[in-house]
Amino acid sequence: MSQTPTKLRLGVNIDHVATIRNARGGARPDPARAALLAIEAGADGITAHLREDRRHIHDEDMARLKRDITVPLNFEMAATGDMLRIALDVRPHAVCLVPEKREERTTEGGLDVVKGHNHLAPFVAELNAAGIRVSMFIEADAEPVAASRELGAPVVELHTGSWCEAVEHGDLKRAEREFERLARAAESAAALGLEVHAGHGLDYDTAERIAGLPQIAELNIGHFLVGEAVFVGLDAAIRRMRAAMDAGRAKAAGTRP
């Protein structure tokens, strides 16, 4: 299913600004300030993951973000009763349901929406009823794409971690296989009427390439941008990311960025 590429949205994840803050305690660096700077630099939305162990983002961060930012807030969370209660209280623009294990360093793969259908269904229904747009963070395969639609989620976010890892390690054959998997999943999801997002492990080069998939409406990027900010500043890192995404989309459309 082909379509004309539109401008690709950038969601900036500010989790790891909070990670740095929490390493020493206190209030700095302030993730809410980082969110405002990200918006000035060109972010179309702000993403934050409130984990059950509160290892980076805290409850008060979510409340401040909802109050202070002028762009959509994407609330990443595990499908638990406590997180649902907080999401319904904060009322973000969107909730992205993600898998979560206490011992993991970061999210390791997509949510099992096939086996987890019965558990996830009431969460999706309640969030939808509250007017909060639901996204499912999934592996790039046809089965979880179809299961997400059956659950009633209007958005899927494709896990790009396996592809980015293969690129980083120079495994070109695996990287191409993973990219083709992402491309097929994006096309399948769009054909089912789902909005398609992508994220995890993206850098300037991989963001530029995946921007060429016309079905993808939004990329969510965090760790890489916070890391780059150490060397060039957050504003410069986000502006360069925005330029890479625009270049990739323009190339796919056969136009100049």
UniProtKB/TrEMBL annotation:
The record marks 157 as: Transition state stabilizer. SUPFAM superfamilies: Pyridoxine 5'-phosphate synthase. It catalyses: 3-amino-2-oxopropyl phosphate + 1-deoxy-D-xylulose 5-phosphate = pyridoxine 5'-phosphate + phosphate + 2 H2O + H(+). One of its GO terms (molecular function) is pyridoxine 5'-phosphate synthase activity. Keywords: Cytoplasm, Pyridoxine biosynthesis, Transferase. The active site is at residues 49, 76, 200. CDD domains: PNPsynthase. Its EC number is 2.6.99.2. 1-deoxy-D-xylulose 5-phosphate binds at residues 15-16, 51, 56, 106. It is found in: Cytoplasm. It holds the Pfam family PdxJ. Pathway: Cofactor biosynthesis; pyridoxine 5'-phosphate biosynthesis; pyridoxine 5'-phosphate from D-erythrose 4-phosphate: step 5/5. Its main location: cytoplasm. InterPro entries: Aldolase_TIM, PyrdxlP_synth_PdxJ, Pyridoxine-5'_phos_synth. It comes from the Bacteria. It is an enzyme of class 2 (transferase). Catalyzes the complicated ring closure reaction between the two acyclic compounds 1-deoxy-D-xylulose-5-phosphate (DXP) and 3-amino-2-oxopropyl phosphate (1-amino-acetone-3-phosphate or AAP) to form pyridoxine 5'-phosphate (PNP) and inorganic phosphate. PANTHER family: PYRIDOXINE 5'-PHOSPHATE SYNTHASE (PTHR30456). HAMAP family: PdxJ. Homooctamer; tetramer of dimers. Belongs to the PNP synthase family. This is Pyridoxine 5'-phosphate synthase. It comes from Alsobacter ponti.
